[in-house]
């Protein structure tokens, strides 16, 4: 009963599904963003486990880049949310359904 | 490090730790997405911290020590703090319960179920290629060596990306406040860039009027 690649991948898939569920179902802009982070983390977990069980370190380097890009993406996205909130004080996606502000 | 390795290699201990961390990660992620007790985004952010920390534990079980540290430093340290800052800054009230969109609800459930089904099928049909006894170690030294030899170009590109993100964030968060600052004090110093744009606007009507006079 050793923990292998399959178990880690299962956790990763479930985590991705949870994140996707959050993106689709939730209506709060910030919670949607957090669910996006969960999906990115699921991809990271899959990459690290592939790297471990294939005896190659490349996957971990890719995860390092993903973490960096995710940090930049969060900064820009939250700045956009703040700028949007100044024009329209709501964080509910159904109130932001028009292209024009 | 030796004691940590020997602890991680003990099969029973590592199996138990795997199930502990995996369960904790999934439960916390579920609470981020749908918390039955609170609809406050701060609660979601806190559970996201817990999910990320237990995921760092999973990284430790995969011998990715450097990434576990980076995960905690960057995600739990920086990203979540940013989230909390924005939540506090916007003063988002507790989300009101709205009428749930039934079509969206079932479409979401259906699509997520189909994707999970796809994943499971992939997992079953793929050949078992995992190494019999994985021996790779994700310490800082080998990762850094790889990062500065084989992946040096992406590394530099990522540094430029961080710079671009920083400039973009400063631009996005300062653009809206500029007119508000310079509006009451129209004749004073602040906003040199703004004044250069304002000068043609003020001179254009006068030149137009002088042209019409002549």
What does this structure look like?
- The complex is a heterodimer of chains A (about 100) and B (about 210).
- Chain A is mainly alpha-helical.
- Chain A has one domain: Helix Hairpins (Orthogonal Bundle).
- Chain A has helices at about 5-25, 30-55, 60-85.
- Chain A is elongated and about 55 Å long.
- With about 210 residues, chain B is mostly helical.
- Chain B contains nine helices and no strands.
- Classes of the chains: A mainly alpha (about 100), B mainly alpha (about 210).
- The interface between A and B is large, with 74 and 82 residues.
What are its keywords?
heterodimer, A: 101 residues, mainly alpha, Helix Hairpins, B: 214 residues, globular
Secondary structure: elements and pairs:
The complex is a heterodimer of chains A (101) and B (214).
Chain A: H1 5-25, H2 29-53, H3 58-87
Chain B: H1 2-9, H2 11-33, H3 41-61, H4 65-90, H5 102-125, H6 140-149, H7 152-175, H8 177-182, H9 192-213
Helix pairs in contact in B: 2-3, 3-4
User: How many DSSP helices of chain A?
Assistant: 3
Note poorly predicted spans of chain B: 182-214
Helix content of chain A: over 70%
Radius of gyration of chain B: 27 Å
The largest sheet of chain B, given as strand count, sense and whether it forms a barrel, is:
none
Q: What is the number of beta strands of chain B?
A: 0
Order of helices and strands of chain B: HHHHHHHHH
Low-confidence stretches of chain A: none
Give the distance, in angstroms, between the N- and C-terminal Cα atoms of chain A. 57 Å
Strand content of chain A: under 5%
Overall form of chain A = elongated
Helical content of chain B (DSSP H or I, runs of 4+): over 70%
Note the run of SSEs of chain A as H and E: HHH
Structural class of chain A: mainly alpha
Oligomer: heterodimer
* Bulk shape of chain B: globular
Question: What portion of the residues of chain B fall into strands of 2 or more residues?
Answer: under 5%
For the largest interface in this structure, which chains are involved and how many residues does each contribute? A-B, 74 and 82 residues
Distance between the termini of chain B: 88 Å
Largest sheet of chain A: none
